[in-house]
């Protein structure tokens, strides 16, 4: 479980493909607290298990199923990614509860700067836009954000200067795809409603 508060920006140092088509990523991350084999780390919003650690580089293995629903197919050597280590039960929740289970990607339609902040407009699939509510929470590339507006199949978020500079949003451009995780409360409420009326 995570909070959607990014603690570090990592860099893809190397990548290889396994015989079973799983992808191996070697991620360089300085200034993170100790990482051990078996730990969970949210990598741009995707909860991944550390399978090896050598100095400042940790290794994760990713299945094809995860690659299909996320933007990990764009991860090349030198790519910057958001990192967050799993939370402790005693931690203060500064963002919102995030599982690291990416639902799908959303595409950036526009980035507008306003008084130092950046308003980002995103295109979302029909199946997921219903989980997105004004003033509700979403996770984009691992970052907990508040939804500003929802119109048809588009929604906007406002990113303050601190968050912009402390995450990989500073590197994003129009047409880029971001990993989306919908709010877990909305997910479970939808499931309960479906069972009630079915």
TrEMBL record:
Signal peptide: none annotated. Keywords: Repeat, Riboflavin biosynthesis, Transferase. Its EC number is 2.5.1.9. InterPro entries: ATP_synth_asu-like_sf, Lumazine-bd, Lumazine-bd_dom, Riboflavin_synthase-like_b-brl. It comes from the Bacteria. Residues 1-96, 97-193 form the Lumazine-binding domain. PROSITE patterns: LUMAZINE_BIND. CDD domains: Riboflavin_synthase_like (cd00402). GO terms for biological process: riboflavin biosynthetic process. Pathway: Cofactor biosynthesis; riboflavin biosynthesis; riboflavin from 2-hydroxy-3-oxobutyl phosphate and 5-amino-6-(D-ribitylamino)uracil: step 2/2. GO terms for molecular function: riboflavin synthase activity. Catalyzes the dismutation of two molecules of 6,7-dimethyl-8-ribityllumazine, resulting in the formation of riboflavin and 5-amino-6-(D-ribitylamino)uracil. NCBIfam families: PRK09289.1, ribE. This is Riboflavin synthase. The lineage of its organism: Bacteria, Pseudomonadati, Pseudomonadota, Alphaproteobacteria, Rickettsiales.
